[in-house]
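User: Could you check the structure of this?
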Amino acid sequence: MKKIIVIFLLLFAGITHAQSNIPTDFFKKPLDIDLVLAGYFGELRSNHFHSGFDIKTQQRQGLNVIAAGEGYISRINISNYGYGKALYIQHPNGYTTVYGHLKSFSPEIEAYIKKLQYAKESYEIEVFPEAKDLPLNQGDLIAYSGNTGGSGGPHLHFEIRDGQQRPMNPALFGIDIKDTQAPTINSLFVYPLGEEAQVNGSAQRQRLKLTPLNDGSFKTEEIDACGEIGFGISTFDRQDGAANQNGIYRIESKLNGDKVFEIKMDKFSFAETRHINQLIDYEYYSSNNSRITKLFRGSNNPLSIYEEVVNNGTLDIKDSLDYMYNISVVDYKGNQRTIRIPIKGRQAAITSPKNIKKTDYFAQANEAFSAEEGPIDVYIPKGSLYNDTYLDIKFQGDTVHLDEDDIPIQSNITIGFDVSKFSPEDQEKMFIAKLNRRGRPSYVSTYKKENRFTTGVRNFGDYTLASDRNAPSIYPVNFKDGQWISSNNNITLKISDDLTGINSFRATVNGKWILMEYEYKNNTITHDFKDGVVTETENHLKVIVTDNVGNSKTYEATFFKK
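Assistant: Sure, the predicted structure tokens are below.
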């Protein structure tokens, strides 16, 4: 890495403009291989949009990751989850590039961050170097690709962000991905939306049969409808070289030739990304694990991905009129699929009305809501719900049934428990748990103050009080107590906790703290002897692991090393 001090002054601060002049020749690809994608920008993920490109690394780790442009390392973040080991480069044109799930950093960056990890005595760390600390030229080696954090397999997560840290589609900057394939359309749905709306005599969501045509497009049979309706589509795209079902770049629809709806995956902000639950049919996703993109927009939906929306994308179908509704799904290279839907405006009796549940609890989206019975109380802040809705809430002992997880929640709701009937000793090992469909509890973050436990959650379901008195487990993987391990490059242990999960761990050798890298996907912690901390022949290892209610387990062993 060339030692050049990059002077930024306040240059990039003045470049937080509307990004109308996006540089297409400033950045180069971050890997010296043909780019094949496992995930596309804006892809629909659980409760968020994917913020970059997931670039395949040939099913292996250790590929050279290079700086996409000149600049300096502005942030280093090492986390057990999320992006794992990640680097952020600030560039003189105001943009930031992000590199995630890294195996390790280049030697200079590795030495810089390990010094800070040892000073803090923590594997997880976040630092913000100054421009003079770690300057870079375009093409400099910065890291090696890996599989750290919340990665499902070896790949490089790559982002480009604007001056306000909003992720942007890397394709806009000339990061070229070969793509000769048109998107795939799985299914199409129609939604009667108005109070008197119906499609083919039904007021419920319906799946429409798609008939493929010779030109690659689709058509449906003519539908009879009247009132306010909307459509939704399940679709994905594939780029060349991989079978992954990746996200879509653009969807537009036209009514009788006039555009009424368009979304485009160019840019979004992290503040809005959870509103993906308004873009999709959340109820259908909860039940079927498949995402339908709604081609209409709710009145309180702030997503910025909408390019053009007329009448919120809904269609007002009049009796005795004919309509042609066309949907186009387009990738960044212009490959597209279309669907043609003929509509006959026809007033008809509704033989299958909407299924509207009515309960004793009605929550309004624009007002706070609370419910309480026995030792349990529930509070839903204003704006946590997207729509007014009846809630099925049942209190039974120390358990609350808080409807089903088919209603999306934007911000945390609070569930509280009065635990005064339990002794302090019992309370110490207790926690709030979410019950799965089989009734098995899983830990949710529990805040304890005097005789009250609370938690903030963003999913409906069943919540209860549970107890954990079992300590975590610790087992050595590549050594034994009393063993000579001179040929080992590292020591690895497996740690796990079967109920509340691992909260913290600490390892020392001969009383000195050693850095252990935690890989939660296989429950291992590993110390690399290249750190140079282990220098004695006879070494006493001590590892303490603590779960989320304070149960601890200690493992001690002696190993010998020349």
